[in-house]
Amino acid sequence: MAMKTSIQRALFCALLLSTAAHAGLWEDGYADYQRKDYAGAVAKWQIVADTGDRDAQSLLGLMHFAGQGTPQSYPNAIIWLRKAASQGEPKAQFKLGSMYANGQGFVRDYQKAAMWFLIAESSGHPETAKPLKKATAEISENDLMVARRWAKTCIKREFQNCE
Prior knowledge:
The chain is an all-alpha fold. Helices cover 75% and strands 0% of the residues.
């Protein structure tokens, strides 16, 4: 029994150290970003994102989208934004909607844009109303019903397999 307790303590300590290290990298990355050392921010946030942190994944996607600290790449932005969006991260969900609406990395698709805006709205993103209205103005009522059904299914599946 003492062996089991020692292993549990060791695992707990390792988890605390890992969490503290990631928190430190997150904060260091933020400090780099504030100093406009975007490459430094990307390097630190990459480590945190690789552990599955949805906020770091979202920021990394935005950095790839904008070409800050890394070459601008819609495909890489999409990869990271999808990872974050699949964990319910509203900014990533919103950005995917914007990318569909603007044809950035995707063929312009207002139906999928509407779907992602609806999903982001359900996750609490505060700025979905105007872009959702613009996207829905570009599609038929039937296409909007389908987009709503897709969004509802995505939410029900806890953001898994949304596309």
